[in-house]
Amino acid sequence: MSGMTPSAASLYDRVQRVIPAIEWPVFSDDIDAILRLKRERNAVILAHNYQTPEIFHCVADIVGDSLALARKAMEVEADVIVLAGVHFMAETAKLLNPSKTVLIPDMGAGCSLADSITPEDIRLLRQRYPGVPVVTYVNTSAAVKAESDICCTSGNAKAVVESLGVPRVLMLPDEYLAQNIAAQTDVEIIAWKGHCEVHERFTPEDIREMRAAHPGVTVLAHPECPPEVVAEADFAGSTAAMSDYVGREKPARVVLVTECSMSDNVAVDHPDVEFIRPCNLCPHMKLITLGNIRSALERNQHAVTIDPAVAERARLAVERMLAV
Ligand code: SF4
User: Is the CB of 196 under 6 A from ligand 1?
Assistant: First the structure.
């Protein structure tokens, strides 16, 4: 394929099951422009699993959950990284690539979990629980990571908690993730009161109604859902674990109890699986569009910066996680 450049026209086949033909002309001009700009600027696009299919399947170079993006961000050789995701993900990419330009197409792409806790909150918790290590979910600002002992994702939280070899940890800021992990380990977990605004809306009744309406459906839930929802599911795991489950078990019918775009993105690779799609959108993830990815590359905006003293401590917390 060397020398051959993909074009929007050649990419449509891949996404035709999830993007109606009538919508495609709206995207194709931006896709061609982004593919050209990536070459001109030696840029790569990292896209989270919750990005829409025209981003995820047509312009992204690296896709995955928070952990995969953090890991793969360390191996990137390009000059410019565009993070198609939310602000804390762009900060994590910058922490691991301090010399590269990291762009986020919309500075307003935040996260209800990241907004639920401040560095000052952690300093107060440390006074209240002296000597108890602080495990912080990656869905937090760099300033919060800098106050933490180690980071975790929904995919590795249990392993991270148990790696510390202590009887008790603070696990912040997602209360439900903390409760779901507490159910799987002997380590005592002290939680914070943060919630993901997408996953907290699912209820056990939703799951029961889906099972009644779609007999035989396999239910996969994200561990940011309340424990009562996870209890109704057949399997709980990170977005990467859900995607692996579908590939491995090939359920005839499945529902992914998580953000809407995830089902579209996984469905592209599994034409034989019927996806039931309850839809809870993340309004922050949906601020990222082909249009603002194109503008980001054209205008070099918006560059992510982190105070070097904060970055150094935050990077340590991320690197400790990656070493587990
Ligand atoms: S889906 Fe939830 S955790 Fe993820 S960015 Fe949106 S609000 Fe934050």
Answer: yes
153 and 98 assigned to the same domain: no
The amino acid sitting at 103 is: L
The reply to whether ligand 1 has any atom less than 6 angstroms from the CB of 140 is no
Give me the number of domains the chain comprises: 3
126 and 181 within one domain: yes
> How many C-beta atoms lie closer than 10 Å to residue 297's C-beta?
23
From the CA atom positions of the chain, what is the Rg in Å?
20
Residue nearest to ligand 1 atom 3, measured at CA: 196
- Determine the pLDDT at residue 3: 45
Closest ligand 1 atom to 197 CA? 7
Model's pTM, two decimal places?
A: 0.94
- Residue 82 backbone phi and psi in degrees, to 5: -105, 125
- For residue 243, the domain's CATH number is 3.40.50.10800
End-to-end CA distance of the chain: 37
* Backbone φ/ψ region at 9: left (φ over 0), alpha (ψ -120 to 50), beta: alpha
What band does 2 get if pLDDT is binned at 50, 70 and 90? very low
Spacing, Cα 111 to ligand 1 middle (Å):
5
Instruction: Establish whether residue 282 lines the binding site of ligand 1, counting it when its CB lies within 6 angstroms of any ligand atom.
Output: yes
Centre of ligand 1 to C-alpha 109, Å, is 10
